[in-house]
Amino acid sequence: MDTSVLIVSFGYLHGEPPAAHITIDLREHFRDPHISPQLRYMTADDEPVRTAVLNTPGITDLVEAAVSAVRAFAAGPSTGPVTVADGCAGGRHRAPVFARTLASRLRQAGFPQVDVRHRDRDKPVVQR
Questions:
Q1: Distance in angstroms (rounded) separating the CA atoms of residues 41 and 43
Q2: Most distant CA pair in the chain: distance in Å?
Q3: SS3 state at 5
Q4: How much of the chain, in percent, has pLDDT values that exceed 90?
Q5: Which residues make Cβ contacts (< 8 Å) with residue 1, sequence separation at least 6?
Q6: pTM for this one?
Q7: More confident call, 127 vs 51
Q8: pLDDT attached to residue 7
Q9: Computed over its alpha carbons, how large is the radius of gyration of the chain?
Q10: Which of 40-43's residues contact partners 24+ apart within 8 Å by CB, and which partners?
């Protein structure tokens, strides 16, 4: 596939979602590692966070659905990059893990140019 893909993870508590063709809201339906005191101050860079997110029921199905959605945009008559934005509450746990996993699956699916940006991963933990 010739289409390039940009995936932007973000936290809704840090501002409006970035402009995207596809926006995925992970806040309501997927377990939040923030609720665990052991995981709260970790990020998607830490294995326990990745494990917690990826073991959440439904998350891998959503990744596969997102791959299908990107394929549909890439198959359309217009050319150009496809942008996917995925957000959770603070942007440190669910969204960046999802973004990395989606990027890996898109590369496996034949998309040669997949970039990932984490808008809010390195911001301070939101106290809520």
A1: 7
A2: 48
A3: strand
A4: 77
A5: 71, 74, 109, 110, 111, 112
A6: 0.94
A7: 51
A8: 98
A9: 14
A10: 40/125, 41/125, 42/92, 42/93, 43/92, 43/93, 43/96, 43/121, 43/122
